[in-house]
From TrEMBL:
InterPro entries: KduI (IPR007045), KduI/IolB_isomerase (IPR021120), KduI_N (IPR027449), RmlC-like_jellyroll (IPR014710), RmlC_Cupin_sf (IPR011051). It is an enzyme of class 5 (isomerase). It comes from the Bacteria. Zn(2+) binds at H200, H202, E207, H249. The keyword Coiled coil does not apply. The gene is kduI. It catalyses: 5-dehydro-4-deoxy-D-glucuronate = 3-deoxy-D-glycero-2,5-hexodiulosonate. It comes from Sphingobacterium olei. This is 4-deoxy-L-threo-5-hexosulose-uronate ketol-isomerase. Its EC number is 5.3.1.17. Catalyzes the isomerization of 5-dehydro-4-deoxy-D-glucuronate to 3-deoxy-D-glycero-2,5-hexodiulosonate.
């Protein structure tokens, strides 16, 4: 029996999204659960054929298997690259026989062509939770671990505007080589709740946000949609949301929190974005 499960979602445009009620908006864009014990689970979105998922190894090694009806390839990374950030207990990832330590808030990039990949928790009572992003790849780049200390750090915002945050650029071309996948982690300071404000769009890239470190009993409201017609999705801890290229992506929590952003598309310039003034949002 396969230890990998998946869901496939087709892309829709802003005109179609206008007709969605709350349930429809959540069904199309919210990923409400990523981690299942001893399973690898993915959501495949047809926006840039991005895959977001999770691996939760508890009872031994957990293998990354191919998804034959979806990928039609003999192994998962035959034509893909993979980014990993651990949001749980300490763990390891084996890549074609080589072992990489990937502990809490550490990242690992695995390039196209890697065949045998296993996820391992150091302590089954505190299992690792490997958050996974994958995109199509045209070239093979080396597997590399990136710690928070090795990330490119950017301080933005201020406590006075409730958006003081640290952006940790981890799997980005200024840190490592990738084909198109970019990933990083933004940590909000205590007392700050707004992320990615002022908001922006980037029509050349889509994005997925994964919210975690959300305290028990607290939530995050994620904003999406065109600048002049925004919608919101209430999100809980360890949930993700798909952000189409035509949509803003911003959020505000009832507490500070952390989120992982992942992007794919034809442009890898992090600052290539179409900014919108706060007062233009509707």
């Amino acid at each position: 029996m396969s230890n990998i499960t998946f869901e496939s979602r087709y892309a829709i445009g802003p005109n179609e999204a206008k007709s969605l009620d709350t349930k429809g908006l959540r069904e199309n864009f919210l990923i409400d659960k990523l981690f299942f014990e001893d399973k690898v689970h993915f959501v495949y979105t047809h926006y840039d054929r991005y895959m977001a998922g999770g691996a939760l190894p508890v009872n031994g090694k957990l293998k990354l298997e191919t998804i034959e009806p979806l990928l039609k390839e003999p192994y998962f990374l035959a034509r893909r690259e993979l980014g990993i950030i651990n949001v749980g207990g300490d763990g390891k990832v084996e890549v074609d026989g080589e072992t990489f330590e990937v502990n809490y808030k550490e990242a690992l990039y695995i390039g196209k062509g890697a065949k045998e990949i296993y996820f391992i928790s150091n302590d089954s009572s505190k299992p690792a939770k490997f958050y996974l992003n994958s995109t199509p790849a045209h070239h093979s780049y080396p597997t590399k671990r990136v710690t928070k200390a090795e990330a490119n750090k950017i301080e933005l915002g201020a406590l006075e505007t409730a958006n003081h945050r640290t952006i940790n650029q981890m799997l980005l071309h200024t840190v490592i080589q990738t084909c198109q996948l970019q990933m990083g982690m933004t940590e909000l300071k205590p007392g700050s709740v707004w992320n990615t404000m002022p908001a922006h769009t980037h029509d050349r890239r889509m994005e997925v946000y994964f919210y975690f470190d959300v305290p028990e009993g607290q939530s995050v409201s994620h904003f999406m949609g065109p600048v002049d017609e925004t919608r919101h999705i209430w999100m809980q801890n360890e949930q993700a949301v798909i952000s189409p290229p035509w949509s803003i992506h911003s959020g505000a929590g009832t507490s500070n929190y952390t989120f992982i952003w992942g992007m794919a598309g034809e442009n890898m310039d992090y600052d290539d974005m179409d900014k919108s003034a706060i007062t233009d949002l509707k």
